[in-house]
Specification:
It is built from ten helices and 14 strands. With 289 residues, it is α/β, with parallel strands linked by helices. It has a single domain, classed as Glycoside hydrolase/deacetylase (TIM Barrel), CATH 3.20.20.370. A hairpin with a 2-residue loop joins strand 6 and strand 7.
Length: 289
């Protein structure tokens, strides 16, 4: 029986990029061109064409501005998770700031889908050793699944804490209950570990590397998850003027080939929402920390 992997979407706008000064003021976001609806509709059609249901981690700001879009995603049978309200890095928030941001987004989304949210993903994979208290807050507020861990350092996020720096599903024990963590898979090529199945890496890396990574993990009996933003399939995606050159290149490269890669991946591997994948892998021995 084929391994079931998870297809996930971070539902946010092209301007929700961390580390770019001109994009950090939430009061200015209404001034930017919105491209979320058209791009998400294209992505929904790709998923529908392949009969795949996904997990959409919804930014609360998007839910507030586009409730009809969130309802459409939910009504189509896709799973909904919480991506926070304002896309602020968790490792730069206090416990109280994080809780308020989480619950503000939660209220907006749950009012639309009329269902309790139990999944969470941090913006920019920004859980590190300085903020592992996140798991206590998540568990206390009824969250059962998190998908925020990135093994190693990256722009604005990632962790080298060996308790959490894993690339397989594990369980975090808190005083309020367990949280199942589904971290981003990384694969080593020429001595360098890369998170090949998501975002800019999915767009820029050759298809055979992505194919190899998924196949290798699945052959060992482990699921991976793929993650994408609606803007990753937008060939006319705007790029802010004050973005540094490396991010400018990453923001544009591979946009024309992403849809073709998605069609190949969806044709050749099994994908479901994260919740379904976690349920199917509970028979495996998850490490508990």
């Amino acid at each position: 029986m084929p391994i079931k992997n998870a297809f996930t979407v971070d539902l946010e706008e092209w301007f929700h990029i961390s580390g770019v000064p001109s994009l950090q003021d939430i009061k200015r976001w209404d001034d930017f061109e919105s491209r979320i609806e058209d791009n998400t509709h294209r992505l929904l059609k790709i998923l529908d064409d392949h009969d795949v249901k996904a997990t959409f981690f919804v930014l609360g700001w998007i839910a507030e501005k586009y409730p009809g879009l969130v309802k459409q995603i939910h009504d189509a049978g896709h799973e909904i998770g919480n991506h926070g309200y304002r896309h602020k890095l968790i490792n730069r928030m206090t416990k109280d700031e994080f809780k308020k941001d989480l619950l503000r987004s939660e209220e907006l989304i749950e009012n639309i889908i009329k269902q309790k949210i139990i999944l969470h993903r941090a913006p920019t994979f920004s859980i590190d050793s300085s903020c592992v208290w996140v798991f206590d807050i998540l568990a206390k507020n009824g969250y059962k699944i998190d998908s925020s861990i990135f093994k190693g350092k990256r722009d604005c996020g990632g962790t080298k804490d060996q308790r959490f720096a894993k690339d397989h599903i594990f369980t975090v024990e808190t005083e309020y209950g367990e949280v199942t963590e589904f971290p981003l898979k990384k694969e080593k090529f020429m001595g360098i570990e890369l998170p090949v199945t998501g975002g800019g890496y999915l767009r820029t890396l050759p298809r055979f590397i992505i194919d190899h990574t998924i196949k290798k993990a699945n052959n060992k009996g482990y699921p991976i998850y793929l993650y994408i933003h609606p803007s990753d399939i937008d060939v006319n995606r705007p790029v802010p003027k004050d973005i540094r050159i490396t991010k400018r290149i990453r923001a544009k490269i591979g946009l024309k080939s992403t849809e073709r890669k998605l069609n190949y991946i969806l044709d050749n591997y099994e994908f479901s929402p994260i919740g379904d994948v976690i349920d199917e892998t509970k028979i495996m021995d998850h490490e508990t920390i």
